[in-house]
From TrEMBL:
Organism: Hymenobacter actinosclerus
Protein name in the entry: DUF4293 domain-containing protein
InterPro entries hit by this protein: DUF4293
Keyword tags: Membrane, Transmembrane, Transmembrane helix
Transmembrane segments: 45-64, 76-93, 113-130
A Pfam family it matches: DUF4293
Amino acid sequence: MLSVLVVPIWSKADPASQGTALLTAFTLSFTSAAPGGSTLGATNTWAIAALAVASAAVALFSIFQFRNRFNQLKLGMLNFLLIVGTIGANFYYSSQGEQLLNIKLIGTYQAGFYLPTLALMLNLLASRFIRRDERLVRSMDRLR
């Protein structure tokens, strides 16, 4: 989730006006190719960055809760919600970016958009294996 902070999430280029829009975890910027190539507008997208950092922090904290698997499962569910929130924020700000340039052109999703989906799948796998470990420990307790 921390890699979402450094890679672009979404971009769109308009060949007619030579304008580009770029979404990162911190800003949604619109740049024109007019003389000077100045940034015409930038919207803060700190919600994406905050959710990604919170998700990474919860995941790191969850790793060190290995003695209490039930607590790990609860943290995994919290992390699931944070990752889904990150994906939702990505969709929201990319739809805002679609409005900046020619609406007929479609923007492209970059690697930063797909990384939370990968984190979501890995989080679900972690929850599955934590449940499996808990079942194994309980079955060993029955044998005693």
